[in-house]
Every structure is written in structure tokens, then in C-alpha cells.
Amino acid sequence: MSLVITWMTTCWALVMALSPLLQVRIVLRHRDATGASVAWPSILLIGSVLWLLYGLLHDDLPLIIANVVSVVVCLFTVGVLLRYRPASPRAARAEGLRLEA
To answer: How many angstroms separate the CA atoms of 27 and 91, rounded?
Structure first.
């Protein structure tokens, strides 16, 4: 029974680790990250790194697998959100753009 629970929780951890890709999909489709928080995946990234270290210290393969995936997805998510974030008003003025309020 313990092995079943271990793999069920590992599978669900992978689903959770991949869930930020739902936001990435929307940002990529619209090429706009307006309203998307960079803090959210950054906080998840810190937590995932800590859990990954814990898993490595305890040779816990399910924790390692789930958190390696989570770290990669969070890094990718942060990168996409930064790439498609709206221009700051100062940068927009420098480029001659007008941002609507």
C-alpha cells in the first residue's frame, strides 16, 4: 500500500509541477504577460529548490523527480513572463509608444 501511495503522490506532484505551463500557454498565445505575476512562479521555484535539496539529502527519488521537473518548469515560466511582460511607461516613452491606462 505504501508503494501505491508513493507513486500516486509522485504523479500528482508532477501534475502540480507542470501546472504553471497552463499560464505559459496563455502568455505565449497572446504574447503578453499583463496581469501575470512573476512572484508566483518565483516563490514556487524557491520551494521546489528547497524540496529538491531535501530529496537529495534523503535519497528520496519521488521528491527528486517531482522537484527537478518543478524547477525546470518554474525557470521556464519566469523566463516567459519576463520576456512578454508589458513595457514600463518609461521604456514605452523612450520607444515612442503610448500605453493606455
So the answer is: 21
- Which band of pLDDT confidence, cut at 50, 70 and 90, is reported for residue 91? low
Q: How far apart are CA 99 and CA 101, in angstroms?
A: 6
> What domains are defined for the chain?
2-28+37-85 (1.20.1280.290)
Please give the span between the terminal C-alpha atoms of the chain, in angstroms, as a whole number: 57
* Integer Rg of the chain from CA: 18
Q: Report d(CA 40, CA 49) in Å as an integer.
A: 14
- Whole-structure pTM value: 0.81
pLDDT of 101 above 50 = no
Per the CB < 8 A criterion, the answer to whether 8 and 64 are in contact is: no
Q: Which residues contact 16 (CB under 8 A, 6 or more apart)?
A: 66, 70
CA dihedral for 6, 50, 75, 36, sign (positive or negative): positive
